[in-house]
Each structure stands twice: as structure tokens, then as C-alpha cells.
């Protein structure tokens, strides 16, 4: 996995605004797409950093409040994003990443996930 980009606003300040499609990032390439799942390469509009995005949604037949789930994994440039895609099948992106969940009838939840700290050199 690529390190988290300390200069990218999508990583340093992930909010509904900084993760808004078309504003915060633009679509670069669709790698796979079905009715409720997609894997895409997107690019931050501020700094040009590329992210691999897994997107899923469902239909809320009762209220039209469709839930969705997204994971953004830092990639770097376009080739790095394609390589990350080849190395990680859809749904297997791990930390570092940002998850953005929009559940039906509940508050939006955006979480930055960090990789585990390597404590192998620590106390035993
Ligand atoms: Zn950025």
C-alpha cells in the first residue's frame, strides 16, 4: 500500500465537502462497474493525487434514502492506481484508506484508517 498523502485535502481533512464527487475529485477511469458496485480511479482536484475508489450502494425502496459505502485508497499517479487495482481485488482495499459510509436514516460516517503500527522493535 502507498503511504497516506500528507498534502492531499481528501486525506488531511476528509469531510462530505472534501469528498464530494465532481468537486473534490474527478473521475479518471472506470475499472469495473455493475448496477450497485464500481471501482474507479479518481483524481483530487486540488493536488492531482490519484485514489482508487470502491463504491457500493443499495436501494432504500421505502424512503428513497439510498445508503452507500465508499473506500478511497491512496495511489499516487495513474500507473500506481492501476497497479494498486491489480494487486487488490474489489472490496479488499486496506489501510491506509478513507471510508465514507452514508447509511440510510443515520449520520454520515467518514473514517481515516491507518495501517497498524509496526511494534516489532518494541518491548517484549
Ligand atoms: Zn489532494
Walk across the major sheet and give the strand order: 1-2-3-4-5-6
Question: How far apart are the termini?
Answer: 27 Å
- CATH hierarchy class name: Alpha Beta
Number of domain modules: 1
> Could you say which overall geometry the principal axes of the C-alpha atoms support?
globular
Ions, cofactors and other bound molecules: zinc ion
With helices defined by DSSP (H or I, 4 residues minimum), what is the helix count? 2
CATH architecture field: 2-Layer Sandwich
Indicate the CATH topology.
Phosphorylase Kinase, domain 1
Structure description:
The chain is mainly beta. The chain has one domain (9-96): Phosphorylase Kinase, domain 1 (2-Layer Sandwich), CATH 3.30.200. The chain is 11% helix and 36% strand. The protein has two helices and six strands. A six-stranded antiparallel sheet has the order 1-2-3-4-5-6. Strand 5 and strand 6 form a beta hairpin. The longest helix is centred in the middle third of the chain and has 10 residues, at 78-87. The chain is globular, with a radius of gyration of 15 Å. The two termini are 27 Å apart. The structure holds zinc ion (ZN). Zinc ion binds at residues 8-10, 44, 46-47, 49.
Amino acid at each position: 500500500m502507498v503511504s497516506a498523502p500528507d498534502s492531499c485535502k481528501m486525506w488531511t481533512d476528509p469531510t462530505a465537502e472534501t469528498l464530494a464527487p465532481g468537486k473534490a475529485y474527478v473521475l479518471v477511469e472506470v475499472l469495473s462497474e455493475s448496477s450497485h458496485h464500481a471501482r474507479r480511479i479518481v483524481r483530487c482536484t486540488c493536488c492531482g493525487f490519484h485514489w482508487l475508489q470502491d463504491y457500493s450502494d443499495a436501494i432504500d425502496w421505502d424512503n428513497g434514502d439510498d445508503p452507500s459505502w465508499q473506500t478511497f485508497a491512496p495511489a499516487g499517479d495513474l500507473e500506481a492506481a492501476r497497479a494498486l487495482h491489480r494487486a487488490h481485488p474489489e472490496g479488499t482495499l486496506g489501510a491506509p484508506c478513507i471510508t465514507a459510509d452514508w447509511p440510510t436514516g443515520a449520520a454520515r460516517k467518514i473514517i481515516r484508517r491507518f495501517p497498524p503500527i509496526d511494534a516489532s522493535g518494541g518491548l517484549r
